[in-house]
Specification:
It comes from Zophobas morio. The active site is at 72 (nucleophile). Belongs to the DNA polymerase type-X family. The strands form 3 sheets. Strands 2-4-7-6-5 form a 5-stranded mixed beta sheet, sandwiched between helices. The protein has a two-stranded antiparallel ribbon with strand order 1-3. The protein has a two-stranded antiparallel ribbon with strand order 8-9. The chain contains 16 helices and 9 strands. The longest helix is centred in the N-terminal third of the chain and has 18 residues, at 13-30. It has helices spanning 13-30, 33-47, 56-60, 67-79, 83-90, 92-100, 108-116, 122-127, 134-141, 143-147, 152-169, 179-182, 208-218, 258-266, 269-281, 309-315, and strands at 150-151, 174-177, 187-188, 191-197, 222-228, 232-237, 246-254, 284-286, 291-293. With 328 residues, the chain is an alpha+beta fold. The structure holds 2'-deoxycytidine-5'-triphosphate, magnesium ion (MG) and manganese (II) ion. Residues 179, 190, 192, 249 line the site of manganese (II) ion.
Length: 328
């Protein structure tokens, strides 16, 4: 669940680093999602700059960087650190909350209440499993594994295994690995698999996902289930005996919603936010299911017919970006 740190080879990497640390603090400890988004937006803007920022006032000219962040950049340039961040990091309660939120299934509110009950380490958490649900227990069990990045090659191999078993189940099922893998990253935090079937059109398809998960359990690939519904599986898998256990998400999408689903599930989350905002400005509402025009009444109309990812960009007049270009 830790978001990848800023790319180390960009000229403003150190600014991005402290902005992302502040973002984590706002999400996990303050629980201020607006500030979280603001810090992430600022980091994303800075990470895309080809040259080094040399002053706060220069940074302020950028879209997404205001007075407060400009001041922090000046402080960081002058002193090499940020007092606010030092204070945050030196507070042991903050540190404990941050640690516990790294367990899959533990959110900021749960972490807060555990710390209030005096649980501040993974060892203590392990002794109080009665306070955890199934997802959180598995998250704790695989704490180290789930924080290890997954090399691209391993995801490719897992995809091959899944494909083989899907073919045996039903040769018409299609699978696309999305997320950071589809954006071309060398390593990923988890595996995001999207499946669809030509005969699955909107109507509920009660058993497809359960059959898929069942088959992948039977062959030993899926080792844990965190949650399983009609369209969404969250769990864990292992390529072979002795391999690291990996987080695996599977979503089942109706065939006619495939391109909106693949766009959403490819991300990044920041890119999705920007694209959805652009869609609204162009008079459309975009989500993982459909693209719909929003009339003057504000009520969304019937979904637009989509035949490719590019169609979605074209409809809202947004310049097409390949998955590799969507990582900000
Ligand atoms: N997503 C989103 N908003 C969220 C969470 C997810 O739009 N709050 C979408 C975009 C993500 C995709 O789902 O790219 C997959 O989510 P992940 O958390 O798996 O993120 P990534 O695959 O992008 O990165 P990682 O390598 O950390 O898994
Ligand atoms: Mg992912
Ligand atoms: Mn995921």
């Amino acid at each position: 669940k830790r978001k990848a740190p800023a790319d180390e080879d960009t000229p403003n990497h150190d600014f991005c680093e402290f902005l992302l640390e502040l973002a984590e603090y706002e999400k996990n400890v303050s629980r201020n999602i607006h500030k979280y988004n603001a810090y992430r937006k600022a980091a994303s803007v800075l990470s895309a700059l080809p040259t080094r920022i040399t002053s706060g006032s220069q940074a302020k000219k950028l879209n997404g960087i205001g007075e407060k962040i400009a001041k922090k950049i000046d402080e960081f340039l002058a002193t090499g650190k940020l007092q606010k961040l030092e204070n945050i990091q030196n507070d042991s309660k903050n540190a404990a909350i941050n640690l516990l939120t790294r367990v899959s299934g533990i959110g900021p509110a749960k972490a807060q209440s555990l710390v209030n009950e005096g649980i501040t380490t993974l060892e203590q958490l392990d002794k109080h499993k009665d306070k955890l649900n199934h997802h959180q227990i598995i998250g704790l069990k695989y704490f180290d594994d789930f924080e290890k990045k997954i090399p691209r090659q391993e995801i490719t191999e897992i995809e091959t295994v899944i494909q083989k078993h899907l073919r045996q189940l039903d040769p018409d099922i299609q699978i696309t690995i999305c997320g950071s893998y589809r954006r071309g990253k060398d390593e990923s935090g988890d595996i995001d698999a999207l499946i669809t079937h030509p005969s699955y059109l909107r109507k509920k398809n009660k058993n497809t996902l359960k059959n898929v998960v069942g088959a992948l359990q039977k062959c030993g690939l899926i080792t844990e289930t965190l949650s399983l519904g009609d369209t969404k599986f969250m769990g864990a898998c292992k390529l072979e005996e002795g391999s690291v256990t990996r987080r695996l998400d599977i979503r089942l999408t109706p065939y006619d919603q495939f391109f909106c689903a693949v766009l959403y599930f490819t991300g990044s989350d920041m890119f999705n936010k920007e694209m959805r905002a652009h869609a609204l400005e162009a008079g459309f509402t975009l989500n993982e299911y459909s693209l719909r025009p929003v009339g003057s009444t504000g009520v969304p109309g019937e979904p637009v017919e989509i035949h490719s990812e590019r169609d979605i960009f074209d409809f809202i007049g947004y310049p097409f970006k390949t998955p590799e270009e969507r990582s900000r």
